[in-house]
Amino acid sequence: MSKEQKVIESLLSETDIHINGKHKWDPQINDHKFYKQVIDEGSIGLGEAYMNGLWDCDALDEFFYKVLTAKIETKIKKNLKVLSYIFASRFINKQTKERSKQVAYVHYDIGNDLYKNMLDKRLIYSCAYWENAQNIDEAQEAKLNLICRKLQLEPGMRLLDIGCGWGGLAKYAAENFGVSVVGVTLSKEQVIIAKEVNEGLPVEIRLQDYRDVHEQFDRIVSVGMFEHVGHLNYHHFIKLAHENLTEDGIFLLHTIGSSESVSTTDPWINKYIFPNGMLPSIPQIAKAIDGYFVMEDWHNFGLYYDKTCMAWLNNFKNNWPQIQQHYSNEFYRMWTYYLSVSAASFRARNNHLWQIVLTKKNRKGMYLSVR
């Protein structure tokens, strides 16, 4: 037994995980190179070893849930590459206009067929609201309805959707609440579908950076986009929202959040899934809105994201035969790994899902939130 294997087995001894064990969450090692790669490269090594078939696991989500709750990842040394990334993230703006385009073509422009076979019928790529919902379609529609009710939309209002995705929220708001919508995204693939689904509706879809929007709106919403803004840009993002919102307006921010303030993301996630992404914390958001907005409501339903990720994973696996000719087996393993570790991060309550309602100080009347 190598020294690396001894270290990993020692770390796992603090959990109910056993190398080559019989439980569905036990990792099955296919190549002994696995041990050295994980010890030397940490998170990146673990993920790449899975992508390359050095290990398997029948229940990756359960494996990661146990790892995260035991905080094993903090006990595996970080290599110099990871340390340099952490250093750079604290002082270098990794979410400039040019860098922000990177996540669009690395993650969102990898093929609409992938997302059509993974998401719900509306192509909503954010946490669903599972209260009284029986499936992902119902849960996503419930989320859209919840957002629109929290925004207190009324016919004739003008809504800005920052990070509009494939246009599902814009379509729902226009059809059901009689508002006109401007949706902005950096993804060319999303723009194609968003324009198609909103044809004939008072919806304008733009391939545009949020920093280039300078207009007045009655309501502003941002769903699942703030995670790409970066801590060095939180203040500017909030400032722009404040400038673009009418005095009586409402701004709803829907974002994944972290239990602690950080300036980096998981190295494997950064390399393969969301380049330059970053999860905000409560103090970071509070600091950004200070002096700009009154916080009217803060709703946490992060455990619903676990269920959402698992629904996406099941769809992805079940529909893989329909799209596999366009992707490699390595991609299949990478995507399975990504959705599994994401589900586990919410199950372990490392990550949360927040809907935050913000208004300007001079807004008249009391805001009453809904669930």
UniProtKB/TrEMBL annotation:
Q: Which organism is it from?
A: Hydrotalea sandarakina
Return the InterPro entries for the record: CFA/CMAS (IPR050723), CMAS (IPR003333), SAM-dependent_MTases_sf (IPR029063)
Pfam families named in the record: CMAS
Q: Which CDD domains match?
A: AdoMet_MTases (cd02440)
Indicate the family of this protein.
Belongs to the CFA/CMAS family.
> What NCBIfam families does the annotation carry?
PRK11705.1
Q: Name one GO molecular function term.
A: methyltransferase activity
| UniProt superkingdom | Bacteria
State the name under which the record lists this protein.
Cyclopropane-fatty-acyl-phospholipid synthase
Keywords, in A-Z order: Lipid metabolism, Methyltransferase, S-adenosyl-L-methionine, Transferase
Q: Which GO terms describe its biological process?
A: lipid biosynthetic process; methylation
